[in-house]
Amino acid sequence: xxxxxxxxxxxxxxxxxxxxxxxxxxxxxxxxxxxxxxxxxxxxxxxxxxxxxxxxxxxxxxxxxxxxxxxxxxxxxxxxxxxxxxxxxxxxxxxxxxxxxxxxxxxxxxxxxxxxxxxxxxxxxxxxxxxxxxxxxxxxxxxxxxxxxxxxxxxxxxxxxxxxxxxxxxxxxxxxxxxxxxxxxxxxxxxxxxxxxxxxxxxxxxxxxxxxxxxxxxxxxxxxxxxxxxxxxxxxxxxxxxxxxxxxxxxxxxxxxxxxxxxxxxxxxxxxxxxxxxxxxxxxxxxxxxxxxxxxxxxxxxxxxx
Length: 306
Ligand code: C5P
Fold this sequence. Notes:
Largest sheet: 8 strands, mixed
Bound molecules: cytidine-5'-monophosphate
Shape: globular
Number of helices: 10
Number of strands: 12
Strand content: 25-35%
Oligomer: single chain
């Protein structure tokens, strides 16, 4: 794929949720070994990459997002240039729809999109695997944002393998909370809680994989779970109300997404999700409500809007 006549490339990249997130011990490098099942949802950021006199990162549709090299997307462009000896300064414009600091890997998604966009702009001949290795250096969730679909993640989350699953779609409502949670702080809170007492742990990942093969929403609802949930609630106790409201409104299941504070609510089908979203929006338990479905593709080039 080459750049359009304006010399820009646009990449659309999905949000993720974790259907399963099992956290192991703190490693000497400051990360935790984990086993997760990611699913990419049809809630996208569009990242536009253009050649420029100097590097910049700007965001449209959200506040509080770092600019320049403080943004992971800026780091992604720089790392790709360093690794390949190609490229030059780029202007990165991020049209944000993925909640910021919401536990849906929006920053990681923008970095993945930047890798795909710069590789296209610079005509790099890299395989997805080579791009995936660079992605893993940028952050634990970046390789999955490249891959999309439904996938198992191991290591610190950066080792990705697709899962066998029935071909159906999962329907979700996302309750986006006020404010965000810092991923390192949520992991540290889990370590603290585990040091002072028993914290419930999710069941085996095999149960989630079997439910995905089965394909029924009810089977999946029985087994989704997140070890970081207790820590996210400990830091943001209001999440309990959101989880409770979701179950009162007929959710099949509701869990904290990743490190939170977004709550992912599993629904039976599209109608169920639409109805539940309306009911939840009428209650004062979150900042906004979104309907989403998955799985969807990973980061890919789309036509640049004129
Ligand atoms: O990999 P990423 O930069 O997204 O991770 C952000 C932070 O989340 C890490 O610095 C670490 O504190 C925590 N983390 C972790 N174990 C993981 C992934 C992330 O402790 N597997």
